[in-house]
Specification:
It is built from three helices and no strands. It is mainly alpha-helical. It has a domain of about 35 residues.
């Protein structure tokens, strides 16, 4: 009978060791996978930031186009149109001044 108890005890110890080794291995694997999470989150965060920046730029361009159409419908010029016009007038005034000086 004592031999039966001894064999049962040894079998229990062996099973316990196998179970603890398996648990330790699983715990180590889980720890390694958790260690990679910050890198994964940083990568996703960077991608999200880039996507948001692209979307905001797209919305800005669409907004400028819509404002330009509304101003054109009303008959008003945008600031950049006026700046281009002023630059062109200044250029023409310089050309006229040169022509008057040579004539």
């Amino acid at each position: 009978m004592s031999d039966l108890f001894r064999k049962g005890f040894q079998a229990g110890l062996g099973a316990g060791l196998l179970l603890s080794e398996g648990l330790a291995t699983k715990a180590q694997e889980m720890l390694q996978s958790v260690e990679n999470v910050p890198e994964l989150l940083q990568s996703r965060s960077d991608n999200l930031g880039v996507d948001i920046a692209k979307e905001l730029e797209s919305l800005r361009v669409q907004g400028e186009e819509q404002v330009g159409r509304v101003l054109a419908d009303v008959g008003l010029a945008r600031k950049q149109d006026l700046d281009a016009l002023h630059a062109r007038v200044e250029q023409l005034e310089n050309i006229v001044a040169e022509l008057r000086g040579t004539a």
